[in-house]
């Protein structure tokens, strides 16, 4: 399992872009995690699935609400990672009104979740292999803080916790 001091896995996530720009075409675009995190401070949070109750009601809205404070604390980008395809993540971004505040990154084949060792098997609930709920502060591609939730919990991966860690 990934831990503080480790480098983020060298995998590719997918991001849906509504508009062309910065070398991105409309539609799904690959995001090389190693390149995208290089030289930046990233507030990364992962969750079991788009449009699921806790994720939609609390997790994403918290990061959208705290985005300006996180940026003021030195965070360059906020990433939401979920085992969903880029189209679903794009639709969820529209629904959650993330705009340019939170990058909604799809881990469609769970490569990132598997590489971090932070998977959640929801096969019995009809959702298959998913990501555990967690947050981490990443500096230049390395994990600086890591907050892993217990089963069914939402206590330590919220935006307020990561903001306090970014400020310290």
UniProtKB/TrEMBL annotation:
One of its GO terms (molecular function) is thioredoxin peroxidase activity. This is Glutathione-dependent peroxiredoxin. Thiol-specific peroxidase that catalyzes the reduction of hydrogen peroxide and organic hydroperoxides to water and alcohols, respectively. Plays a role in cell protection against oxidative stress by detoxifying peroxides. Pfam families: Redoxin (PF08534). GO terms for biological process: cell redox homeostasis; cellular response to oxidative stress; hydrogen peroxide catabolic process. The keyword Oxidoreductase applies. Belongs to the peroxiredoxin family. Prx5 subfamily. Residues 2-168 form the Thioredoxin domain. The lineage of its organism: Bacteria, Pseudomonadati, Pseudomonadota, Betaproteobacteria, Burkholderiales. Its EC number is 1.11.1.27. One of its GO terms (cellular component) is cytoplasm. It catalyses: a hydroperoxide + 2 glutathione = an alcohol + glutathione disulfide + H2O. It comes from the Bacteria.
